[in-house]
Every structure is written in C-alpha cells, then in structure tokens.
Amino acid sequence: MAEQDIDAIIRVRDVTVQFGTTRVLDGLDLDVKRGEILGFVGPSGAGKSVLTRTIIGLVPKVSGRIEVFGVDLDAASSSQRRAVERRWGILFQQGALFSSLTVRQNIQFPAREYLRVSQRLLDEIMVAKLVMVGLKPEVADRYPSELSGGMIKRVALARALALDPELVFLDEPTSGLDPIGAGDFDELVRTLQRTLGLTVFMVTHDLDSLYTACDRIAVLGNGKIIAAGSIADMKASQHPWLQQYFNGKRARAVVA
Ligand SMILES: Nc1ncnc2c1ncn2[C@@H]1O[C@H](COP(=O)(O)OP(=O)(O)OP(=O)(O)O)[C@@H](O)[C@H]1O
C-alpha cells in the first residue's frame, strides 16, 4: 500500500451516485489526508452535499467504494459502523440545531446516543465543549431561537465535537455569517484542528475560508474532482470555472 493511502482518513474510489436518471457523482475519486483541512468547492448544485452525505452513509451509491479510517463502510458490520461513526462529528448546513432542544440538550444529543454516562458527566462534557468553541456556560439553557447566527454555528460545532472526534464534516459552516463572524469561525476551526489534531472535510463557498483555514482544496465539477491542490494550484489552473472562481472579481477582493 502506498504511503499516501495509509494517510488517507477518507478514501473515495470510483463513486457514482444518481437520483432517477440524473447522475450527480460520476466515478469520483478523492482522498482526505490525516490532519488536513480540505476545502471542498464547486458550482452550486454540483453535488458537494451529496458527496458528504454519501460518505456518511445517508445517500446510497450506485457503485464505488468508500473507506473511512480504513473501514469499507459497505462491508462493515453494524458494530464496526457504529465504531466509525463514533469517531466523526458533523455540522450540517441546514438544521444545524434541534430547535425544540436547549443548547445543553443539543450538545448532549450524540453523547446520549453513543455513551452510557451519568448526567453529571454529560454536563461536564457539555460545558467543556461550550468553552472550547468560545461560548459561556450560561448559554446552556437557552433555545436556538435565543441565539445569534454565529452562536448557533458555535453550538453546532460544540455538538460535532461532543464525542472527541478525529474527523469533522463541516457543510458550509460560515454561510449566513457576516465577514467578521465568518473570519472568527474560520480561526476557531483552524485552532481546534491544530490543538485537537482533527481532520476536517469542509464544504464551502467562502473564498476567505479557503485562503485562511484550508490546507488543500478539491474542486467538484461534472460529477468528478476536476482539481485538487493548494490555492496556488487553483489560481494557476486553466479550467474556466477555477479561473473565474479564484481569479475573478471576488477573489481579487479577498487577496487585496
Ligand atoms: N435526495 C435527493 N433526491 C433527488 N435529487 C437530489 C437529492 N439530493 C440532492 N439532489 C440533487 O443533487 C444535485 C446536487 O445537490 P447538492 O446539494 O449536493 O449540491 P451542492 O454542490 O452541495 O450545492 P450548493 O453549493 O448549492 O449547496 C442537485 O441537483 C440536487 O437537486
């Protein structure tokens, strides 16, 4: 086995997904390496969320193979699958929090599902995670409707971190935040990734996030990865979508 394969926390091979006759992913290959923040971009509707949901097993694939932590999730037993799920955390784009649950209940949700521990320990874990994402323990008994957009994202991140994951999926984590809030969130993700040694798979449209938070970028187009590499690689690409995205007006605003 090649060394880069050993370091791939997520390995996607020849994956095809379609809905009815519409093929969204078409023989897609992608590696996410241990300890990196991979920014996953592409045109709206290209299938970024579909790939994320396919990796975590929420969308069935027509063909192909996906390994997470070296485990082929199709071949895994339910207990092996649960063991893998226990090692990842997810921040979904929509419905980031359960609106009928308090912050405390939201953050404790995964722990209740996967751990058999006392309420006291659950509360300790919850407070530790709130502090980790820069929130005060006092927000624990508020409902999502009583929080700002930035606080909701932070609570959702705290919930994603509840089980001390090694891998985190973030689906457009900065969408809906103002540029300062988004910048703060990027910095938080970067800091947590460094201190906790996380591997992060981040779907984003946010050019600032790609510049400041991501180690590597993969671009989805026509159901496949059309480019993967550094910002410099993206800017040097002759692909029309990459040219427009990384060298267009908005890109210049970011680097100016
Ligand atoms: N459950 C589903 N049933 C049918 N079609 C679906 C389903 N989920 C996604 N699609 C279709 O798959 C395509 C890719 O959707 P997806 O949400 O992954 O795009 P995306 O790249 O994440 O877009 P955006 O950047 O706008 O969030 C879209 O055409 C979408 O309508």
Automatic annotation (TrEMBL):
Alphabetical list of CDD domains matching this protein: ABC_Org_Solvent_Resistant (cd03261)
Entry's Gene Ontology molecular function annotations: ATP binding; ATP hydrolysis activity
Signal peptide coordinates: none
Entry keywords, A to Z: ATP-binding, Nucleotide-binding, Transport
Keyword Transport: yes
SUPFAM superfamilies the record matches: P-loop containing nucleoside triphosphate hydrolases (SSF52540)
Occurrences of domain ABC transporter (ranges): 10-247
Family of this protein: Belongs to the ABC transporter superfamily.
Function according to Swiss-Prot or TrEMBL: Involved in beta-(1-->2)glucan export. Transmembrane domains (TMD) form a pore in the inner membrane and the ATP-binding domain (NBD) is responsible for energy generation.
PANTHER family: PROTEIN TRIGALACTOSYLDIACYLGLYCEROL 3, CHLOROPLASTIC
Name of this chain's protein: Phospholipid/cholesterol/gamma-HCH transport system ATP-binding protein
Taxonomic lineage of the native organism: Bacteria, Pseudomonadati, Pseudomonadota, Alphaproteobacteria, Hyphomicrobiales
